[in-house]
Amino acid sequence: MARLAEGKGSRTARITAAMRHRHWLGGSRPLVFEDPFAHLFLDLPSAMAALPTPLADRALGRLYGSVRGIEGEVLARSRYVEETLVRRLRAGLDQVVVLGAGFDTTALRHVDSACRFFEVDHPATQADKREILSRRPELGANVVFVPVDFAKDDPADALLAAGFDSARPALVSWLGVTMYLEQRVTLATLVTLRRILARGSSVIFDAYPRREETVLSERPMFAAARAMTAAQGEPMISAFDSPAFEKAIRGKGWRIADVLDGDAMRRRWFANQPRILWPPRSVLFYTLEAV
Asked: What is the CA radius of gyration of the chain?
């Protein structure tokens, strides 16, 4: 992505942190997802956008009105991983990989657990995050930062060098990333990770569909989202082909354990949320299990 290639931290990572913070401040209760730490990573523009005020609502309506459903998807994917993580921690999970971590706060919300969180991301974004956390010494002790330039580095080798234990199961959270990758790169990354993930490990990722698999009424939303991220120097280039993926992943050491679509997300978490925040029906959450 052009912005990262220039050594600048991810702008879209900050935008998604603002979405989580906005929901924390003013979302309809019960919240879809609670993130008390997202505010730490906001700059002035993103903090202003996160304020749940009538003025901010009007501004968001004009700027992002056509993509507010993406905000719901950001909340839903975080909730989906959180529910899985809590179950796995109770069962003794002791290592999590957050791939393309951005300003993810999972480790901060589980600082009292015995689990280590390996955050894998581009060095530029990671530098921003580390500088912010350096001012909060009570946070981040359970984080192992793994800087990776995905254009040239092997994330599996980097994880092993950082102390990841390939003999023990892990949960990999890979949120908000595949839409910025060609599908072949997504598949190659899963094959690479399988080399170091023990049987019983899981990967969770979200995928934005190709046009042929997108509900007709949602096509303008995805077009607007792609235009918005391109304007930030981080274009979404993927058009996820789910039948092709499900065929290609066979024999690669993975089993598709769960696929959750937008309708299921709405039923599960959005009964009390305004319709504008409902996640797109066409979005998919995948859980893969290493076999």
From this structure: 18
